[in-house]
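re: ur question from yesterday

yeah so i grabbed the chain u mentioned. its 282 aa long if i counted rite. heres the sequnce exactly as i have it in my notes:
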Amino acid sequence: MRIAYTMLILVILLATGCQPLAPQPTPTPVPEQLPDPGMQQAAMNAVESYAKSVGYAYHTPSLTIVSAEETKALVHASVSFQTRKGFPYEEYDALINLRKTGSTWHADPVQEFTKLDWEKDLQRGPATLRSAAGFTVQVPAGWSGFAAPESELIPLSQCGVGFEPIKAVPLLAVMPTGYSAANVPVILRAFQQCPRAQGLGIIRQRLENVRDSDKTLKFERLELIDFAGTSALLAVVSDENGSVLYDVYVLYRERQLEFAVQAHAGQDLTKVLEVLNTMRFG
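ran it thru and got these structure tokens back, copy pasting raw so excuse formatting
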């Protein structure tokens, strides 16, 4: 997810101090288990080792596969931890790397679990999110999303026109429910960027400069498209680790909007691209 292209194109998002968005905690009445008993035990051992190292009590984790190959897998662990005796249990999550040696699965040590506690109250799907920037998007069942109110948008009078954005605010986030922002494997985000470009050709020129200067990035596509009934610039970029970024830029109602699909390597992008395709302007 933290590919170099993201850092170059969206670095201003880090500078704005905006908090990442993620779904609210989702307690799991019946914890999910991995299909392979060896994988299940290795992941459980990693959770137990972490809990012991920090002195947390915990309830049975819910474990799901994010990606898997013959000798390695990435597992999402959602765990209720009690961080201090007498305190309530709270939801945390982490991604666990599993590796297979011979017939035995082993887990890499978990460095940190992230608390699922966010300031933004996301809507659970199915739902329609309406942005004050002039678009709507459909959130499917099993996913959660947030659209910023008009009060959080940058006024047009304060944005201006320029070659490269120096400020941005999050407009939208849509992602699978039950993940923290640190560990979500695939996510759709939208931003208002300021200053806005004079035209899509200016944005394309900036991305071409990135493509020509950073050979670690592979631009699968960089072209003008019709997006939800309006003209847009599409960039599809991957890095050396196989992480993927779909970037769509739109100039709408005198605002520069960016819609970014970010995903870990090996993720099935079908669902998130279906969400992107529900976008409507007007």
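noticed a couple things. The chain has a mean pLDDT of 87. also The longest helix spans residues 37-54.
anyway ttyl
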